[in-house]
């Protein structure tokens, strides 16, 4: 694997834990967004990524774009769609990348990949066979032109707000420190969401 993967994809694999097609989809999107928007890895919230799924792809966006849930510049709208929007705050430009077709393997190991796909689909694949199938599919995806995998559309969208900052205070019920803007008032007392829901 180390001989055939791009170096920046290896970094994504190290972060994610394994190579898989989902990670590669995110890798391809991140690379295209970097090129189209002239991006550098976001140290703060200069870049925003909106993912319409919660798949492995998100980890490549985090690594290459610097968009993370903790910074508030990774927004997950889990529609189950293979679509991602990346915004450059500095010039307000954004592109939406949407996977266009069902995947079809076109690499040099057609026969092997076909038998591996069958084994996986039938639930009879060994761990090694599953890993090999993911590897071959991932390599094939990396070799494809981006436009063969994703449609790209320039979009206008309202700039997402920066991550909110607010003091924490103790929940009147459980006493645990909670972001004040996330608390609910019940019977005149500030409660964390779990405690407020337990009272309903």
Describe what this molecule looks like in 3D:
With 200 residues, the protein is an alpha+beta fold. The chain folds into two domains: 7-155, 60s Ribosomal Protein L30, Chain: A (2-Layer Sandwich); 168-198, Wheat Germ Agglutinin (Isolectin 2), domain 1 (2-Layer Sandwich), CATH 3.30.60. Helices cover 38% and strands 20% of the residues. The chain has seven helices and nine strands. The longest helix has 17 residues, at 21-37.
* Bulk shape: globular
- Helix/strand-derived category reads alpha+beta
Q: Give a count of the beta strands, DSSP E runs of length 2 or more.
A: 9
Mean pLDDT: 93
Q: State the name of the first-level CATH class of the largest domain.
A: Alpha Beta
Percent in strands: 15-25%
Number of domains: 2
User: What is the ordering of alpha helices and beta strands?
Assistant: HHEHEEEHHHEEEEEH
**Helix fraction?**
25-40%
CATH architecture of the largest domain: 2-Layer Sandwich
Mind telling me the C-alpha Rg? 21 Å
Spatial order of the strands forming the largest sheet: 2-1-3-4-5
CATH topology of the largest domain: 60s Ribosomal Protein L30, Chain: A
Low-confidence stretches: none
